[in-house]
Design brief:
- The chain has 364 residues and is α+β, with helices and mostly antiparallel strands.
- It has two domains: 2-209, Endonuclease III, domain 1, CATH 1.10.340; 227-363, Nucleoside Triphosphate Pyrophosphohydrolase (Alpha-Beta Complex).
- The protein is 45% helix and 14% strand.
- It is built from 15 helices and seven strands.
- It is globular.
- 36% of the residues are buried.
- This is Adenine DNA glycosylase.
Length: 364
């Protein structure tokens, strides 16, 4: 066991990537990086991390910020509950822990958005506490090293790997150890075509010795991802302003603005779906008169095709029946509001229209 940890920590210290969160021992900054890195590529995170800390350099700055400001800084990074939870947790750190990120398990896991994985990462990297981290990279490295051929989707397999990692992590430099195993999985022990010749564990790796790196780890086929048809309404008023709605905080993409609409139901045309959704969400009767654009977007567990239709209110005054609030905004000011990625794509298309184009849609 000491051979494993010694080899991998020595390799890490020699080969680790130059990443901004590795240049600080500030628990707050390490916390930000760990939240952003969840299910997100390092190259994607770096610019967001740097901009976020420029905007919110301390936990006090984050705690005092408006949620809309936080989500605007998070816009495009995805998994927006991470941003909402981070904002909520920063207030707890300030109010309950005097602005200090907790260094005790029970306290740090009491923060919203921090589960066992993030707590282990933070406590080991920021405070040098002996907690082993297991993510996809760690699972791959340990599965290959020990020749584990069980399905890694199963909790029993994950638990076994957690136990092995718990045994391997050293008292000295536990943060370096955790980062080393993850770094090895990200850069050397990759899912396809691992560079075994550059691996410090190559000599003792069972999968490498048996030429089974293509077979290990084994992951059973995922369930088919559902695909939904989404109909949204682009409603213009006489000032060429568009109606947008603020999603409830507790919903998916909560706290972000959107063009109102929703999922097409069975035996319903897209135009009918648009009219029904706007009736349910805004309490208005609309005329759906032309399609602006279709676009596809993939989330983690489902895919959508979004169909955007120009609409005109025939009866009623719009009210936020299923959203936090609604607002009329011009295209000049729309970038001030945080939107999901699919809506941002629509906005980009809308901005390519000139005012005469908008008037054309309004008059037809």
């Amino acid at each position: 066991m000491s051979s494993f940890s010694d080899k991998i920590v020595a390799w890490y210290q020699e080969n680790k990537r130059d990443l901004p969160w590795r240049k600080t021992d500030d628990p707050y900054k390490i916390w930000i990086s760990e939240i952003m890195l969840q299910q997100t590529r390092v190259d994607t995170v770096i610019p967001y991390y740097e901009r976020f800390l420029e905007r919110f350099p301390t936990v006090y700055d984050l705690a005092e910020a408006d949620q809309q400001d936080v989500l605007k800084s998070w816009e495009g990074l995805g998994y927006y509950s991470r941003g909402r939870n981070l904002h909520h947790a920063s207030k707890t750190v300030v109010d309950k822990f005097d602005g200090n990120v907790p260094s005790v398990w029970d306290e740090i896991t009491s923060l919203k958005g921090i589960g066992p994985y993030t707590a282990s990462a933070l406590l080991s990297i920021a405070f040098q506490k002996k907690y082993a981290v297991v993510d996809g990279n760690v699972i791959r490295v340990l599965s290959r090293y020990y020749g584990i051929q069980d399905d890694i989707r199963k909790s029993t397999t994950k638990n076994r790997i957690q136990e092995l990692t718990d045994d391997l992590i050293p008292e000295d430099k536990p943060g370096d150890f955790n980062q080393a195993v993850m770094e090895l999985g990200a850069t050397v022990c990759t899912p396809q075509n691992p560079n075994c010749n550059d691996c410090p564990l190559f000599v003792d790796c069972i999968a490498a010795k048996r030429a089974q790196t293509d077979e290990i780890p084994y992951k059973s086929p995922a369930k088919k991802i559902p695909h939904h048809q989404i109909a949204v309404g682009l409603i213009l008023n006489q000032k060429n302003e568009l109606l947008i709605a603020l999603r409830p905080n507790e919903s998916m993409l909560g706290g972000l603005w959107e063009f109102p609409g929703g999922k097409q139901e069975e035996d319903e045309t897209l135009q009918e779906a648009t009219a029904r959704e706007l009736s349910e969400e805004l309490g208005v009767e609309v005329e759906v008169f032309s399609k602006f654009r279709d676009l596809r977007h993939a989330y983690s567990h489902f895919k959508i095709t979004m169909h955007a239709f120009w609409c005109r209110i025939k009866n009623g005054d719009p009210k936020p029946k299923s959203s936090q609030k609604i607002k009329w905004v011009s295209l000049d000011e729309i970038d001030e509001f945080p939107f999901p990625k699919a809506n941002k794509t629509l906005i980009k298309g809308l901005k390519n229209l000139d005012k005469d184009d908008l008037s054309h849609y309004l008059d037809n």
